[in-house]
């Protein structure tokens, strides 16, 4: 099963959690934490403090904020990202975290590229083209977020050789090409040369509704593959085209360290793996490409998935 865009219980920004009724990037603390994850060194971003892991030279948030205000940057992240290019993996509608992150980056001046799960690509592009997202595209200064290019992406597959024949023949993938992680990275390089920001905003657990004791091996491994290894794969293939001093960010969840009833199917394990991988990737990518690597977490997204979790917790 392909990695879908992060909606539902996926979360963004930083411990401690914000109230569930506040939408992602809807509060100043969330925006600030996301900004810190971009401008600090490596590790885990927090609303209260930023924990870092790694030897990279850090540009302080204060200096970014001062520069942004002095140059008249739009409201939002306290960072001036004009002249920077971001690739956000996991944008399939205007209601998920990937979309909200793209808007925050666009408001700060970054050029936006997105990777959309292949089965959702046609609907997403059609809705975008017909103006159905125009209201959601509005930035703080009144302008509309521009998405320079939408790429088909299934982050479960590293290269074409990894794709099973039944997936290749699936009608939901018909008409799309070059959608594996390696192929997308190569296409972005051909189109733009390089990027500065890489965002991993996708996850999928086919057995997320099952308790861990009832989760199959295949369901567990699928959750880890789509929700954590996909970040490793993205960084593997995009690191060569990332400009030194750039940043890579993924989204974690508090289930990595606490029991959340209803968040099963190996997803809690996948998030724990993602956090552990972030530390190692911060060490390795920092030395190899001078890239900061962070994962951020703040709360839950109010929607059908959250309602399902609340219902599970009452049983």
Automatic annotation (TrEMBL):
Record family assignment: Belongs to the short-chain dehydrogenases/reductases (SDR) family. FabI subfamily.
Subunit field text: Homotetramer.
EC numbers on record: 1.3.1.9
Protein's name according to its UniProt entry: enoyl-[acyl-carrier-protein] reductase (NADH)
The keyword Protein transport belongs to this UniProt entry's keyword annotation: no
Gene3D superfamilies: NAD(P)-binding Rossmann-like Domain
A molecular function (GO) term: enoyl-[acyl-carrier-protein] reductase (NADH) activity
Pathway assignment: Lipid metabolism
Organism: Aegilops tauschii subsp. strangulata
Catalytic activity, reaction form: a 2,3-saturated acyl-[ACP] + NAD(+) = a (2E)-enoyl-[ACP] + NADH + H(+)
InterPro entries reported in the protein's UniProt record: Enoyl-ACP_Rdtase_NADH, NAD(P)-bd_dom_sf, SDR_fam
A Pfam family the protein falls into: adh_short_C2
Keyword Amino-acid biosynthesis found: no
Keyword terms: Fatty acid biosynthesis, Fatty acid metabolism, Lipid biosynthesis, Lipid metabolism, NAD, Oxidoreductase
A biological-process GO annotation: fatty acid biosynthetic process
């Amino acid at each position: 099963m392909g990695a879908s865009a992060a909606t539902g219980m996926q979360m963004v920004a930083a411990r401690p959690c914000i109230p569930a009724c506040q939408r992602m990037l809807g509060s100043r603390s969330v925006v600030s934490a996301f900004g810190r994850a971009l401008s600090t060194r490596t590790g885990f971003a927090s609303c209260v403090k930023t924990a870092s892991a790694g030897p990279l030279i850090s540009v302080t948030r204060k200096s970014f904020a001062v520069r942004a205000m002095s140059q008249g940057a739009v409201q939002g992240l306290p960072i001036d990202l004009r002249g920077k290019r971001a690739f956000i993996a996991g944008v399939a509608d205007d209601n998920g975290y990937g979309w909200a992150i793209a808007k925050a980056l666009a408001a700060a001046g970054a050029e936006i590229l997105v990777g959309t799960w292949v089965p959702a690509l046609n609907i997403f592009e059609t809705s975008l083209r017909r103006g159905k997202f125009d209201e959601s595209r509005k930035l703080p200064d009144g302008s509309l977020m521009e998405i320079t290019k939408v790429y088909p992406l299934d982050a479960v597959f590293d290269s074409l050789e990894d794709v099973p024949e039944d997936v290749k023949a699936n009608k939901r993938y018909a008409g799309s090409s070059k959608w594996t992680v390696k192929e997308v990275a190569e296409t972005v390089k051909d189109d733009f040369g390089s990027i500065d920001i890489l965002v991993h905003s996708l996850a999928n657990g086919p057995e997320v509704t099952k308790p861990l004791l009832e989760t199959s091996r295949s369901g567990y491994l699928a959750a880890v593959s789509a929700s954590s290894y996909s970040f490793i794969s993205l960084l593997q293939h995009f690191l060569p085209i990332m400009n030194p001093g750039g940043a890579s960010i993924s989204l974690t969840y508090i289930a990595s360290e606490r029991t959340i009833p209803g968040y099963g199917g190996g997803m809690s394990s996948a998030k724990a793996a993602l956090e552990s991988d972030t530390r190692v990737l911060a060490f390795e990518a920092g030395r190899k490409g001078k890239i900061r690597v962070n994962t951020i977490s703040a709360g839950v997204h109010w929607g059908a998935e959250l309602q399902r979790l609340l219902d599970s917790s009452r049983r």
